[in-house]
Amino acid sequence: xxxxxxxxxxTLLAAALLYALSAAPVSACNNSHLSQVKxxxxxxxxxxxxxxxxxxxxxxxxxxSSNLESANLSGTDLNGADLSATDLSAANxxxxxxxxxxxxxxxxxxxxxxxxxxxxxxxxxxxxxFADLSRADxRGAILEQVHLGGVIMHGxxxxxxxxxxxxxxxxxxxxxxxxEARLSGTNLQHANLAGAELIETDLSGADxxxxxxxxxxxxxxxxxxxxxxxxxxxxxxxxxxxDLSGADxRGAHLHAATLITTNLSGADxxxxDLRAANLGGAxxxxxxxxxxxxxxxKLGRIQLAGVRLGGAIWTDGKICxxxxxxxxxx
Length: 330
Fold this sequence. Notes:
Elements: H1 2-23, H2 31-40
């Protein structure tokens, strides 16, 4: 009996100890590395994963090649810090100061960078896939060969930033300031640009197929000829006075859009939704409007020479007969 009670007591003690160990908070980071960072602001190739570094002054710190995955750096001053080749995946960097920081080759996938200052930072070859950069300041940042797929940049400051040739498909750029930014050859398929500032933005060769540009003004955008806008949402967008000659607008949503004196010569608008759109004074010479919906559209002083209108729904709601060119035969 005594032996049985002893075994039971040992079993209960072991269970209690196991529970205490499992319930105790576990820090994934190396505590000596964490202490080193807080003391001398330098730790290369260190394990700081899940470390709590909130609000600490780490300006000019050297943390290159370190593991900061899921670390909390919210509000931390990292101005001029060396974070090259650092793993910051899923880290919280909200409202941190990363101005002039070196983040080249850093892993920032799914990181929280909302409200962060990245002005002048070096992000070349960094991975920012699905990171949250809402309200971030990226003026003057170096973004060469950066991975930006699925990135959230709602309300971000991207003035004069060079995003040429990058893959920004499905990115959220709504209400972002892209004034004077370079988007030459950029993949923006299905990206959200609703309400974005595109003043003097270079769009040469950009792919905006399926993008959301609802209520966006492109009146001061540059190099818009031949744009790929097939299936894009341009409802209530302002496209007045710009050159969209040769543009691909097949199936585009242009409901209530403003296209006053816009050059659409040679553009492909087959199946486009132009209901209630204002096309006053627009040039459509040689354009394809086959199957487009023009019901309620304003066509004052419009030039329709050579325009294909077969199957289009005219302003009066009637369908143009197949083979209609230059005029809607009903």
